[in-house]
Amino acid sequence: MPDMPAKLSSVLLSVKDIAASIRLDKWVAGAIKERSRSQLRVLIETGFVAVDGDTVIDPAFKLRAGQKVEVSFPEPKKAEPEAQNIKLNIVFEDEHLIVVNKPAGMVVHPAPGNADKTLVNALLAHCGDTLKGIGGELRPGIVHRIDKDTSGLLVAAKDEATLAKLAEQFAAHTIERTYEAFVWGRPTPKEGTIEGNIGRSPRNRKKMAIVSRGGKHAETYYSTIKTFGEVATHLKCKLSTGRTHQIRVHLSSRGHPIIGDPLYGGSNRRALKHLPDESAQYIKGFPRQALHAASLGFRHPKTEKDMSFSCPLPPEMQTLLQVLESG
Predict the structure, then answer these.
(1) Which region, left, alpha or beta, applies to residue 136 given φ > 0 means left and ψ of -120 to 50 means alpha?
(2) Could you report the per-residue pLDDT of 70-103, keeping only the tens digit for each?
(3) What are the tens digits of pLDDT across the range 271-317?
(4) Most buried in the list 20, 164, 216, 265, measured by CB within 10 Å?
């Protein structure tokens, strides 16, 4: 067995009620539901699992009834991203998860070009010792992401079991997510469903696009909240799937890009001519895509209670609404 960390917890299990031999990783995953099968497999392969006192590193090892399995859990390592004291708008928090209202301009996860000052950096500082360890590290479990310049609600898990169960809900499309957007023009019909596989654009690798081959199925339902003549429309969008840039790509494909979106055509000179100069200048200079994750609903992985959260439009989008109403 490899050198063990100073702090280590373990659990001793008895193999009972199996009629035939069974793979070690499969049996352990069924016995320890608080951890993901992939994490338990890593523990086996790195020498933290013993059968009848002997270390076993083969996940396919066959177990028999009557054997004893000991699984050891090393103390989670500190996550590589640095904890940074960044103010968060917390909507809900308990020992298992946290829901935040992310501001526009904040990246969710560190990446090349955005190594710090992200939501993960902020969550590491805020949650601290309440993080139970995910994938062997003390870090928040990011279940879903929203674009840097999109504001709104996002849920993160504090432990492995919560992350796994929230991920299952996202995969099953039982998470309820609605967005509010301001788009150019007036979509016809006033409400409907946009479908189309989304993949990397063959013409511009920085963009996503509806593609005829490959890509992933994507479905967006939209409904009209208010129209502003032929200039713009305030929409509510509901996601059945969650693909990168999904709402932005789907609305742009219908000829109604989101106001302020520099990547998918967020400016419309013809429409701006119908507005007073002051209003036109404000909208022309709108600093980001006018898209906001307004509501989020899911079943709490621990209590199994239905949770529902909402947050109002941020100040700059409220001002945009007032400008369009006055125009």
Answers:
(1) left
(2) 988 777 666 667 889 999 999 999 999 999 999 9
(3) 888 889 999 999 999 999 999 999 999 999 999 999 999 999 999 99
(4) 164
Q: Which residues are catalytic?
A: 147
Assigned token pair, 40 = 């338990």
Geometric angle at alpha carbon 157, from 152 and 158, rounded to 5°: 130
Q: pLDDT tens digits, residue range 56-72?
A: 888 889 998 889 999 88
How many residues are recorded in the chain?
327
Residue 189: cis peptide before it, omega within 30 degrees of 0:
yes
305 Cβ partners below 8 Å, 6+ apart? 299
Q: Strands 232-239, 219-228: parallel, antiparallel or unpaired by DSSP?
A: antiparallel
Instruction: Write a three-state SS string for 237-254.
Output: EEECCCCCCHHHHHHHHC
Low-confidence residues of the chain: pLDDT under 70: 1-8, 19, 76-80, 135-136
Give CA separation, 147 vs 157, 272, 317, 320, in Å. 19, 26, 16, 20
* Whole-angstrom distance, CA of residue 142 vs CA of residue 130: 15
Would you say 22 and 62 are in contact if contact means Cβ atoms under 8 Å apart? yes
**Taking the model in full, what pTM does it have?**
0.78
